[in-house]
Amino acid sequence: ELLTSGRPKNQFEKGSLARVYAVASGKGGVGKSTVTANLATALADRGLSVGLVDADIHGFSIPGLLGTTAKPTRVDEMILPPVAQGVKVISIGMFLDADRPVAWRGPMLHRALEQFVTDVYWGDLDVLLVDLPPGTGDIAISAAQLLPTSELLIVTTPQQAAAQVAARAGELAEQTGQQVAGVIENMAAMTLPDGTVLDLFGSGGGQTVAQRLTGSLGHAVPLLGSVPLDPLLREDGDGGTPVVLEHPESAAGTELRRIAGSL
Ligand code: ADP
């Protein structure tokens, strides 16, 4: 059923049973990829069949976050995704020989994403996560077209200036006809060992984005959670061992596992 008249078929057309979440942010560096890798890992750890598409083509980081250098294998016309931390994962980084910048333009990016949903054999997935590039560029629009059932998850920091940019990324949903499943605040206040609370990036950004999107999209957009700043999240990301598995009881690990359970 995968091949329709010899042509590979989009496995995530309307009617597909997988829940699809495209993870977006207004700008880079807010922890979108780190959150996505951990949600995917936590969902797989809960026993779900999970796929992850790294569509952050210019800034791909998912293979490193999941600690894999594996290459996809080819079987006939199909590409089998490597499995890392229990997650089937595909990234443009896996098709490049060296760490060279990707100088692709819109149509090539669209084609790459199209191949990820047609030529990659995903099998029966419960959930597909897509790590979008920051902002509202070509790829976010292509992803919306190629994944017609996808809902957006918006990652923002608590900073009000960042929240305004993140809300605009969410408002792209108006044009693409997508729903926004929720907002995840990241880099929220951390509690230091002496009990002081350090809110490096201020507070309230997640709530601001959720309220603004609820107002502008005409459906309720919940704040799904608030992941604190946590050195373990960064260290485990650098080590390719997601914090939700490596330090599940840490502040960030606990909240990320809770958010995964609410999806
Ligand atoms: P994006 O995908 O939005 O560009 P990344 O996931 O690459 O962002 O995260 C940017 C940096 O911030 C990484 O070095 C990551 O380890 C770190 N980071 C992300 N979230 C947190 C957090 N809650 N606490 C500490 N460091 C974080």
TrEMBL record:
UniProt keyword annotations, A-Z: ATP-binding, Hydrolase, Iron, Iron-sulfur, Metal-binding, Nucleotide-binding
* Residues that bind ATP: 26-33
Q: Which domain of life is it from?
A: Bacteria
Task: Describe the protein's quaternary organization and the partners it interacts with.
Answer: Homodimer.
Q: What does this protein do?
A: Binds and transfers iron-sulfur (Fe-S) clusters to target apoproteins. Can hydrolyze ATP.
UniProt family annotation: In the C-terminal section; belongs to the Mrp/NBP35 ATP-binding proteins family. In the N-terminal section; belongs to the MIP18 family.
User: What's the protein name?
Assistant: Iron-sulfur cluster carrier protein
Organism listed in the record: Citricoccus alkalitolerans
In terms of the whole protein, what range is present? Answer: 104 to 366 of 384
